[in-house]
Amino acid sequence: MHDKLLKFIQSAHPFNPEEIEMIKKYFEPVVYPKNTVIEEDGKVPQYLYYIVSGYLRLFHFDQNGDEVTTHINCPPGFFTSYFHFINQTRSEENVECITDCELLRITKDNLDKITQESDAMKNFSISVFQQAVNYNENRSKELAVLNGEQRYLKLIQNYPEILQNVPIQYIASFLGMKPESLSRIRRKLIN
User: Fold this and answer.
1) Are 79 and 51 in contact (CB under 8 A)?
2) Given CA atoms 170, 171, 174, 180 in this order, what sign does their dihedral have?
3) Which CATH architecture has domain 2-114?
């Protein structure tokens, strides 16, 4: 499983053999079945996950007790409740495996250890968190300025495989709409 992570991080930053061994040492391989909540709301996120395969979502419950999906991630990439992981504070979000997932996980302490000992890992970590901030800013903008159909079209253009792997109710919630609204949009586009 480490091969995919190493290929992913070395595409942007060169790592020496000692740094590669640290990555193998500190990123622990784990496998979870679909529908498993791996980080619970009300707790401090324990891990940063690298997705080898599978789909994860970040969700919380609104005031009516309904689930609101705020993020869906496709492999490869990193996933957690970033703000709370970095600050080691209680999160109001859950991390759930939508599908069976193969992941590599690292604790905050071990991530800090690697970034202190490796400039390459430090630079890579900074770029990952900058990408997370950019993603969240763009997503906020899209929710504010694009209508539902435009958001859906953009999602399937950028991540076409999401439709085969993620239930429609999660996609609808992620796009800021009810499943019925998304069904209407999809029927309209088919016709």
Assistant:
1) yes
2) negative
3) Sandwich (2.60)
* Gap between the Cα atoms of 165 and 111, Å rounded: 30
Domain boundaries, the chain: 2-114
CA–CA separation, 70 and 38 (whole Å): 16
Return the biggest CA–CA distance within the chain.
57
Task: Determine the pLDDT at residue 133.
Answer: 85
∠ CA(189), CA(54), CA(29), 5° rounding?
165
The answer to whether 61 and 38 have CB atoms below 8 angstroms apart is no
- DSSP labels, 21-76: HHHHHHSEEEEE-TT-EEE-TTS---EEEEEEES-EEEEEE-TTS-EEEEEEEPSS
List phi, psi (to 5°) of 11.
-70, -20
Which tens digit of pLDDT belongs to each residue from 41-66?
999 999 999 999 999 999 999 999 99
Residues 12 and 42: their CA atoms lie apart, in Å, by 35
**Predicted TM-score (pTM) above 0.85:** yes
**Cα 21 to chain centroid, rounded:** 25
CB 173 within 8 A of CB 69: yes
